[in-house]
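Hey all, sorry for the wall of text incoming. These are the two entities for the joint prediction.
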Amino acid sequence: MKSKEKPLILVTNDDGITAPGVRALVQMMNEIGEVYVVAPDSPQSGMGHAITINSTLFCEKIKIDEGPQSDREWACSGTPVDCVKLAITRILPRRPDLCVSGINHGSNSSINVIYSGTMSAAVEAGIEGIPAIGFSLCDFSYSADFFAAEDYIKKIVKESIDKEMPKGMVLNVNIPKLSKDKLKGTKVCRQAKAVWVEDYDERKDPRGRTYYWLTGKFENRDKGEDTDERALEDGFISVVPIQYDMTAHHFIAEMSHWDL
Amino acid sequence: MKSKEKPLILVTNDDGITAPGVRALVQMMNEIGEVYVVAPDSPQSGMGHAITINSTLFCEKIKIDEGPQSDREWACSGTPVDCVKLAITRILPRRPDLCVSGINHGSNSSINVIYSGTMSAAVEAGIEGIPAIGFSLCDFSYSADFFAAEDYIKKIVKESIDKEMPKGMVLNVNIPKLSKDKLKGTKVCRQAKAVWVEDYDERKDPRGRTYYWLTGKFENRDKGEDTDERALEDGFISVVPIQYDMTAHHFIAEMSHWDL
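and here's what came out:
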């Protein structure tokens, strides 16, 4: 990017365009670039990489709060991935220099990356060749302090612009629930091998039909010291570079012994 | 697995439990193991790794056709990933030995793996430590010939059981639209670097509001000879081993030069 141009930053999320987390991120990004917001009109948590193919999408201009971006915001009826596709194809005046997604209300560390609408939006930007970063705060509260990590968030964004991340690279940034003075810094790490051990709460509806609510317990089975879970436990902001080639390259040779 | 036990096979898909593709797969799997079907009650294409967290799930026993599995089928109101989670946690009598998903109506090769409900169901089984295979036929037609590749499908399933795939390994199998005598065999390959170049068809609803339909063109930008796209072009069934650690391991060292 030429140094004198202001970067065009696409902001999106999965908690919906009015969520405090994205409003905080918009405010921070206004200091760094020219912000456009295209985000879901309603909560889309857990939507993963879902796209809307069997129904229509609405996407309307909306004014939410005062700020340099206030006439550059759109609320979209689709998923976070829809927002990114539609923004790039139809809404933005040019390709964005960066896409930031979040700040998510709740962790997207380790295996959560795959279920997360926030991270899937960032990954979609990555697929489209746009550097992207997803931010999540490990605090579900509506009144969580999204500004405790403000300095780190801005530093990560600026570095990703200055260092020109390779195409297709995406950062998954998770912030522990700590006050500003307790945050220990950032750590670049790998995704921990953790899982959700599900349970389903089984109930009867008024007509006697069985229905289920998903519940579950997060279990980190990875004792590695270089994981995002470990960094968060230790009070660091975890930064995991991620990519979307899902090929298990090491297993291709192994399969030459298969009789297929 | 002990050789005398019949493997318990969980069958699911994303086109819905009555789709011809899954009915064909059920029929084939009945010859190999004890089949349980837990699949969406309606089409869920493009749902990626979405899960249902903000609403309830229904999952009811359903009898669709005659066969050994006919009293072991459930239709679920959720996404393909919900089906797998619910099957493992609540429906099946024990952990399945294998999960097969599909046969999808349409390709899930290259980047499609990330949008695909079919493949996300298989990946979810992988996350839960269950060997899993997703099958897709590159033919959207309702009357597509799902049996042309029957021998190959059964061979791949049997090999994956005999060779005991490592935990977390998932196969993405795509079948070209060819008659049985034209199929050239199988090829183990990597995911091609291909993308969808989107466009959105913009229209006005009767009230004058703008809405959009997703359209797009698939573009394979990867000239490699070891890709799934190349195998399919050449008349082979592509088999890509996939995994769900999205960490860009090679970039972690690179980031040590960043000022974070």
